[in-house]
């Protein structure tokens, strides 16, 4: 920590100097406010101890100038002629503390502890702000925590602000693990309701009666065990966004109840006769084809059209393979930070393997795969062997037919292709030594 | 110049306390410690409105004493010491300097006791606790003279203590890290 003591009295400057020196701090001194400002222009300081009464620029003037020009520098005001008014003024102007000379030695220790604590918090805040900026930045690859640079995702990024501007119900459709909840959150974050709650509920996780009491709440005594009146999520959301995931799983009765809520904007708690006004924006999500469900009679068409005013389809990962390297790098950074394991990248062969796979579990499956590989990694670069638990679909095809010789030939050809005919990498991936691989290449005529 | 330490009593200082301090410095640090004949209080250090002595002025005076051949000098006083920014100090020494000063004035009292309510004879009473506190302050200031900064380990005599209760919690020895630095400093100054 670098400290500057600004006081026109040399004995005061020296007293501070010697004390801070004994604390192990780096100390500089200035005899006036002007000299202090000159030193600030040329070097970085963490804390300034400034006397109020100085010829020329006063300590208060210096405090104001430093707060305006160097907001990260903490200023402690010192004076021998303290009044409550000056102390209040100093603190209001942005001083970290106010010391009345002479003070007890441990008071200075306490002030320094306070300064250090504040600077630690400020640093922590800056780190979080940077992290937030990176996550929500307006870059091409990241939008409200959704990562992607494929044309499909770019189209989605363009659509979200437009959807957020309206208040109409949205239906998100997409396979499991495609990030439907992230899209719902992004719509909420960009909407006028962003300061109000975002309340998600997975409809598929509750039986009908439980889902009813979760959504609508209940009156005391409504059923056995209802010891207290409880608000439902439709009330708790109060002005925010309600995210109903797996909407295709709800019962016909619940579809009717929700349809009424959407039309009347009123609810009845279970066991209550008094309607309560509700206000929320509905975003629903499903992995099922609801039109087929309607045709089969499993889903009400009137409810479908009420929740599907705006329809958004989220593409599966296999249809946006251009995003795989970006997502893989993102999850790699995330899990190497979380596990404090030094894993810096994925080898070309490893990345080729990730690109080949069809990812039926979509982004969630990719995230789990990277997490697993990072946890078990033994080197800073993830190799194809680290993803041995993934079985690309075309591998399955090649293994499904042919003689052992044919299968071996096909497998070696694929691995060589993945590794751009780098013998060392291919041999490592195949778990054989280089000379054995050379013999097999010669035997099968696989020269690149 | 000899690496030994000279203890200089200034004004009225109990002889037993001096011996305990000398014994602790010699025992803890394996240094030669001599108790020199007392000198009168240096009156230019006296601040009438504060009724205290300025430790910085005392240190300057001790550094100017040419008749002392010892490498380090510690002035020991029975009066209260201050520094311009502080209400009081138990002791003061420049980092890597030749002279330091310490006061026994506040060491006889119990924590939170007002020193103004203690009589002069009581203040100088060579009680065991006061002597132990004196030895801690002396070791701490000697540490600064050999360039040690305040230690973050509360189990080290170089840890900063602002009050008598803090001082009582400190041990009468250096932590391993500070001791290593001290021995390196002794070798350099030998």
The CATH architecture of chain B can be named as: 3-Layer(aba) Sandwich
Query: CATH superfamily of the largest domain in chain A, please?
Result: P-loop containing nucleotide triphosphate hydrolases
Whole-number mean pLDDT of chain A? 86
Report the mean per-residue pLDDT of chain B as an integer: 89
Distance between the termini of chain A: 60 Å
Strand content of chain B: 15-25%
Counting DSSP H or I runs of 4 or more residues, the number of helices of chain A is: 19
Give the gist of this structure.
The complex is a heterodimer of chains A (448) and B (190). Chain A is an alpha/beta fold and 448 residues long.
Structure, explained:
- The complex is a heterodimer of chains A (448) and B (190).
- With 448 residues, chain A is of the alpha/beta class.
- Chain A contains 19 helices and 18 strands.
- Chain A has a 5-stranded parallel β-sheet with strand order 2-1-3-4-5, with helices on both faces. A 5-stranded parallel β-sheet of chain A has the order 9-12-15-8-16. Chain A has a two-stranded antiparallel sheet with strand order 6-7.
- In chain A, helix 2 runs parallel beside helix 3, helix 13 crosses helix 15 and helix 18 packs across helix 19.
- The longest helix of chain A has 32 residues.
- The two termini of chain A are 60 Å apart.
- About 1% of the residues of chain A have low confidence.
- In chain B, helix 1 crosses helix 4.
- The longest helix of chain B is centred in the C-terminal third of the chain and has 18 residues.
- The N and C termini of chain B lie close together (9 Å).
- In chain B, strands 2-1-5-9-8 form a 5-stranded mixed β-sheet, with helices on both faces.
- Chain B has 190 residues and is an alpha/beta fold.
- The interface between A and B is medium-sized, with 22 and 19 residues.
